[in-house]
Design brief:
single chain; Rossmann fold; 6-stranded parallel β-sheet; two-stranded antiparallel ribbon; 9 helices; 8 strands; about 40% helix; about 15% strand; globular
Amino acid sequence: MNSLKVLAFDCDGVMFDTRKANQAYYNDILHHFGRPPMTPDQFFFAQMHTVDESLESLFPDPDDLQAAHALRRRTGYGPYLQYMEIEPDLKPLLNKYRSLLKFAVATNRTDTMNRVLAINGLESYFDLVVTAQNVPRPKPYPDQLLRVMDFFQVSAEEVLFVGDSELDEKAAKSAGVRLVAFDNPKLAGDFHIRRLKELEDIISL
């Protein structure tokens, strides 16, 4: 793929399997307030959206939501980082192409992304990290991918975005960026892969 200059990744579900971490995080908050664990639909929502959006969906009452945010600020996400499982193909892929491509993260995570990278020894690989805190609007809006293009001074045709959710699909489409759908055949991606290693075939096209 001669035009490719930037490879951008979503975090949850792509770079890391975060199901155990996010489930434990939100269920512990719910448990603190005497509420039952998340339903499958609530968990599906939380996996894709920002923490603010997820808590709003779990605590629709304004007073309850304020209390949940206060608890979140006190406890933090740190204790749950241990449950995040890095995708085994990620580091080998980054090492193989780090001299040929620029790498970015475009995620609806907020204040935890840099710590996640540091704990897993990934800080030096990524030239840009764009979270929901860094743009006016999170995914499904295109703001994160537009920030990626602006930072690297590249066109949409020079970017590949690896995502696994409908929010990623909508953001890529709005930004005009090609989407590599990761382990989700339901997405309308330009490419579909089950493992990150399969990106090598796409890059070599």
